[in-house]
Design a protein that fits this description.
- The chain is mostly helical.
- Helix content is 75%, strand content 0%.
- It is built from nine helices and no strands.
- Residues 14-74 form the HTH tetR-type domain.
- It holds the Pfam family TetR_C_24.
- It comes from Marinobacter nauticus.
- One of its GO terms (molecular function) is DNA-binding transcription factor activity.
Length: 209
C-alpha cells in the first residue's frame, strides 16, 4: 500500500518549514546572510540540520526563499506609499522617503537585502526585487508625465535610475564596516533622507524643488 501523508503530518511539516524561515530571517536580521549558518538556524528552530535540507534543497535555496519573502514586504510598503493622494511627484517623494527611512531603521536587514555579497541564487532574487521597485516607480512617472508635473522622458529608464540612486546612496550608511555613528543615533538621518530624495526628484523633474 502506498504511503499517504496525513493532514497532521502535513501541518507538522508546514510548521517546521515556517519555523526554519523565521529563524533564518532572525539570523539575517542580526548579522546578515553570512551569519545565518545552517547549524545555528537548526538550533534556533529546534530541528536537525537534515530537517532543513528536507524542506530546502540547499542553503542557497533557503536564502533565496528568505530574500523573496523579505523583499516582497518592502516592495509592498513602497506600493502603499505610492498609493497616497497627491501628485505623482508627491507620491514618489513619499515612496522614496519610505524606502530610505525603513532601510535606516533596520540597517542590517537593509544591508543584507541591498548590498551584502550573496550567493548567485540570492543575487538573482535581488535583481527581481530591484525590477519590482522600478516597475512601481515607472507607473508613477508615467502618471506624472500625463499630469504634466514630470517632464516627458523614458519612464522605464528613469525608474531604473531612481532605484540605482537610492540604493547606492544607502550602501555607505548601511555598511556594517562604516566608522561613523550608526543611522538613527544622531540628528543626521533626516538630513540624509532629505538629500537623497532631493537628488532623486531633481534628476526626475529637472527642478531644484
Amino acid at each position: 500500500m502506498a504511503y499517504r501523508e496525513t493532514e497532521k503530518m502535513r501541518q507538522r511539516k508546514a510548521e517546521a518549514r515556517k519555523k526554519i524561515i523565521e529563524c533564518t530571517w532572525e539570523c539575517v536580521s542580526e548579522g546578515g546572510f553570512r551569519s545565518a549558518r545552517i547549524t545555528r538556524i537548526a538550533g534556533l528552530a529546534g530541528v536537525a540540520t537534515g530537517t532543513i535540507y528536507r524542506h530546502f534543497e540547499s542553503r542557497e535555496d533557503l536564502f533565496a526563499e528568505i530574500f523573496r519573502l523579505a523583499t516582497q514586504r518592502e516592495v509592498d510598503k513602497v506600493a502603499e506609499a505610492l498609493a497616497v493622494d497627491g501628485s505623482a511627484v508627491e507620491r514618489l517623494d513619499n515612496a522614496l522617503r519610505q524606502f530610505a527611512r525603513r532601510a535606516l531603521k533596520g540597517p542590517m536587514k537593509a544591508w543584507a537585502l541591498i548590498a551584502e555579497p550573496v550567493d548567485p541564487k540570492v543575487e538573482e532574487e535581488r535583481l527581481v526585487y530591484r525590477k519590482a521597485y522600478a516597475n512601481l516607480f515607472e507607473q508613477a512617472i508615467r502618471s506624472g508625465i500625463t499630469e504634466g508635473c514630470i517632464p516627458d522622458q523614458d519612464a522605464r529608464l528613469t525608474s531604473t535610475c531612481l532605484v540605482g540612486a537610492i540604493s547606492e546612496s544607502l550602501v555607505g550608511p548601511l555598511s556594517p564596516t562604516q566608522t561613523e555613528t550608526p543611522p538613527g543615533h544622531d540628528n543626521n538621518e533626516d538630513e540624509l533622507v532629505d538629500t537623497i530624495v532631493c537628488f532623486c526628484l531633481r534628476g526626475l523633474t529637472g527642478t531644484r524643488s
